[in-house]
Design a protein that fits this description.
Elements (H helix, E strand, L loop, with lengths): L5 H7 L6 H4 L6 E7 L5 E4 L1 E2 L1 H7 L5 H15 L1 H7 L36 E2 L1 H4 L8 E7 L7 E9 L2 H6 L1 H5 L5 E6 H8 L2 H4 L11 E9 L2 H17 L5 E5 L2 H12 L1 H6 L6 E2 L13 H14 L4 E6 L4 E8 L4 H20 L11 H4 L3 H5 L1 H14 L43 H6 L17 H6 L6 H13 L10 H8 L6 H5 L6 H16 L3 H7 L1 H10 L1 H8 L2 H11 L15 H9 L50 E5 L2 H5 L2 H13 L3 E3 L8 H5 L3 H20 L3 E4 L2 H4 L5 H5 L3 H8 L1 E3 H10 L12 E5 L3 H6 L3 H7 L5 E5 L9
Parallel strand pairs: 13-14, 13-15, 15-16, 17-18
Antiparallel strand pairs: 1-2, 1-5, 3-4, 6-8, 6-9, 7-8, 7-11, 10-12, 11-12
Length: 816
């Protein structure tokens, strides 16, 4: 729903979690304006019997459609009644059941099969036709009021079959939705930082769970329905865990996991992926337990497993078996599974597609699913609408063999490139690109960060998916190999802000920022490094020089002619205000305090410079425990903080542009009882990484590791204020440098607010705040959101009593 379009819903006759209440798109699409295959336009809507006779007498294509569709409905009426699945969620084939004349000659159509028999309405044949009959340009749709109150009952089960067997019990309570989530999806959610924090509704290790939602006019009404279901389930010993959720945030977390089940499934590591070829069957609800048992047995017989989720309330489940389509034997396995599942669907009186349409994967089953006579009617319908077969050929009728157009098949091969970054975690550079499964979450517009450039341009090539597809095409030979580092590919990736929103918000964790770093390195090897990239990669040195000449530099950088020159030379927008250079850098302030130039709460010894000597804190005494920082504190040596030593990671902007941030952090840490040390030897490397100068970044990383790792070995932790810099130690350093030292440094590096929260959890944070009231809005940093989230920042800002803190539902601020 975050990126659905009305046109797409009309094409597939889409439905969703609440179809038990609202039906499908066909129940809400009232009228359509369409372009027909001869280029003519038509308005399709309900017509009276008299008007139908008038429309059917003309000579044009529209009149011919009215005649032929009416004739097909009448001619094939007995067969339609006999062969169409009697279920809510049938979207396979064409909607000829909407044109069966009602008994008694009352002028109504769709009697006995459609949700609401009514006047002849040709738009109902276009809905669900998958773009094979006409192009819809405008739609008149029904709207329904949003529920005033909602609540959820989560019911946990030991195994999948037990869950679907309980569906009938849930439906007896007349819920708005009953949704299934299985163990595989929950396991993938636990492995995803964005989703792991949302799993508080999962207790123990369930094999599956049902999400049962109720609507009502009041909270009391919804609570009554939840209590009634909860009591009945416990009385009948159904499920081993029950959780009632009425707060909006808790409900949103549950629905977030359920709605992104597809992306979570596709994040399964390795070459075997959950493939969509039998993922959309629908059967009568009463046959669902039998269907799931036999489906699971089919997968077992073929030596594979699958992920299960979907709409248990209407017998429509999305089941994706794990298949490696790059192996010929696995392709044969996919075909065999599809045949077995088709037979099972027919025996259960179901449809091969209950939501997603036939497409190329299931269209070839329609002749056997509906029988030769109805399939003949489908062919006639397609021929009259589209005699030259120009609208989406190969869908619904005349579909190719399901294995003909595989994205990944036995012939799929990718070129091997020597990468600068370590992509072993992703299965290689191609594996990192192939993490994109095409779900299009990057096209969402309503929430979150991803994808800022798509939100700005609305162009597919500037979405995460578009970029991944372009790279995959070059890697796999669909484009010439030289296109991998071509100027056109550079254009495709150029607007990626490297915000890392995709790494967090894409359920498959596509890290396009990392992919772009590598691309830029490869591109510059072929085309040379532009001066603009060198300028920004060396921002640390530039800022250092600017601070040495701060008054003059600030004056000059404020002149409009200098800004205009910077725009012409380096592409820096002339409207941009430059960050100020500090006359006294943070390091100068720090040394002055150390030498007694200013009083400090931690004393002179608390600001001693970096050293790898035995003066660092040991691992005894007042250690912080229980939060991954054991060994921080040590015995209180002369001149050291009573809780141990903290290395403050002074990033380049803190050092040369905004030293007040470093001063405040130093004083805060000292008041918390820590001696503060500076030890960084070079820029963190983030600017170099973002500009693709990865070998330069590797050298900077090694210098910093050499300086910081010995202190970490002796019990200190590294604390930083700037998320993108500090988190480079925990993310990109692992891909740039090998060895145990980098791993230990990564595990002991924290943002300031993370560190404060861990101290608070261990009972070691002894900070006192004066009484004051403030309302704060937090704009979360993109890299922080991607790596660790903003929970620790929100929590730390709430430490002072009287602070009211909330987070903005924001995207990228533009700094990237």
């Amino acid at each position: 729903s975050s990126r659905a379009t009305i046109g797409g819903m009309i094409g597939n006759n889409s439905a969703g979690s609440h179809s038990i209440l609202y039906g499908k798109t066909i129940d809400h699409a009232l009228e359509l304006d369409v372009a027909l295959s001869d280029g003519s336009e038509a308005h399709l809507g309900p017509v009276s019997a008299e008007r139908l006779e008038q429309l059917a007498r003309g000579d044009g294509l529209e009149s011919r459609l009215y005649r032929e569709v009416r004739a097909l409905g009448a001619a094939y009426c007995p067969e339609i009644f006999a062969r169409y699945p009697k279920i809510i969620r049938r979207v396979s084939g064409y909607n000829l059941d909407e044109f069966v004349p009602a008994p008694g000659g009352n002028g109504l159509y769709g009697a006995g099969l459609a949700t609401r028999p009514g006047p002849f309405n040709l738009s109902r044949i276009v809905v669900g036709s998958e773009g094979t009959l006409a192009v819809a340009s405008e739609a008149k749709v029904r709207i329904v009021p949003l529920p005033k109150s909602k609540g959820i009952e989560v019911v946990l089960f030991r195994d999948l079959v037990e869950a679907v067997e309980a569906t009938g019990e849930m439906m007896a309570s007349h819920p708005a939705a009953t949704e299934l989530i299985d163990r595989m999806i929950l396991e993938r959610a636990r492995a995803n930082p964005e989703f792991a924090r949302r799993l508080s509704f999962v207790q123990g290790d369930p094999g599956a769970l049902l999400v049962v939602e109720f609507y009502g006019d009041t909270e009391a009404e919804v609570r009554s329905k939840l209590d009634e279901l909860d009591a009945r389930l416990k009385r009948k010993n159904i499920g081993f865990g029950h959780l009632t959720v009425t707060d909006p945030a808790g409900q949103q977390s549950i629905w977030k996991v359920r709605k992104d089940s597809l992306g979570l499934l596709m994040s399964v590591p390795g070459e075997k992926k959950p493939i969509a070829f039998v993922e959309d069957p629908a059967v009568p609800v009463e046959r669902l337990p039998e269907f799931v048992r036999r489906f699971t047995q089919i997968l077992t017989d073929h030596d594979t497993v699958g992920g299960y989720y979907g709409h248990a309330s209407v017998g429509c489940l999305h089941i994706r078996p794990l298949i490696d389509l790059k192996q010929a034997g696995e392709v044969d396995k996919m075909r065999a599974i599809a045949e077995d599942v088709f037979q099972l669907v027919v025996e259960c009186g179901g449809s091969m597609s209950g939501e997603h349409g036939d497409g190329l994967a299931r269209g070839h089953f329609n002749q056997r699913l509906f029988g030769p006579k109805i399939y003949e009617a489908f062919q006639k319908l397609k021929a009259v609408f589209d005699p030259h077969n120009i609208f989406n050929p190969g869908k619904v009728v005349a579909a190719p063999e399901m294995t003909r157009d595989l994205r990944y098949g036995p012939q799929y091969k990718t070129i091997q490139i020597q990468t600068h970054l370590d992509f072993s975690r992703e299965g290689g550079f191609a594996g990192a690109v192939e993490m994109c499964n095409g779900a299009g979450v990057c096209r969402k517009m309503l929430e979150g960060t991803m994808c800022p450039s798509f939100q700005g341009t609305r162009e597919e090539e500037h979405s995460t998916r578009g970029r991944a597809n372009a790279l995959r095409a070059a890697l796999s030979g669909h484009l010439p190999a030289e296109e991998l580092t071509s100027p056109r590919m550079y254009e495709t990736l150029d607007l990626c802000l490297e915000c890392k929103g995709c790494k967090r918000e894409c359920p498959s964790n596509v890290d396009l920022a990392k992919i772009k770093y590598e691309f830029l390195a490869q591109y510059y090897e072929r085309h040379g490094v532009p001066q603009r990239a060198r300028l920004f990669a060396g921002i640390g040195k530039l800022n250092a020089w600017g601070s040495r000449m701060a008054p003059l530099a600030n004056f000059m950088m404020g002149r409009q002619w200098v800004k205009n020159l910077a725009e012409m030379a380096f592409g820096i927008d002339a409207r941009r205000e430059f960050p100020p250079f500090a006359a006294e850098t943070f390091q100068q302030w720090f040394r002055r305090r150390r030498n007694g130039g200013a009083a400090g709460t931690g004393g002179a010894g608390g600001t001693r410079g970096a050293t790898a000597s035995g003066e660092a804190a040991g691992a005894t005494g007042d250690a912080v425990t229980g939060a991954g920082v054991a060994g921080v504190a040590g015995g209180i040596a002369r001149g050291e903080g009573r809780r141990g030593r903290v290395v403050l990671f002074d990033d380049c902007f803190l050092s040369y542009n905004y030293p007040q941030v470093g001063r405040a952090a130093t004083e805060l840490l000292e008041r918390a009882g820590f001696a503060v040390t500076l030890a960084k030897q070079d820029c963190c490397g983030r600017p170099m990484i973002s500009k693709g100068l990865l070998e330069q970044a590797r050298r900077a990383a090694r210098r910093n590791i050499e300086a910081l790792a010995p202190l970490v070995e002796q019990g200190a932790v590294v604390v930083g204020c700037e998320p993108s810099c500090l988190l480079t130690l925990r993310d990109e350093y692992l891909d740039l440098v090998k060895g145990p030292a980098v791993g230990r440094l990564a595990s002991q590096s924290y943002l300031l607010e993370e560190f404060l929260c861990m101290l608070q959890d261990s009972g070691r944070l002894d900070l006192r705040f004066g009484p004051q009231e403030k309302k704060l809005l937090l704009h979360g940093h993109c890299h922080q959101k991607a790596q660790i989230g903003t929970a620790s920042t929100l929590r730390a800002l709430r430490f002072p009593p009287g602070y009211e803190v909330s987070e903005i539902n924001s995207g990228c601020c533009g700094m990237a």
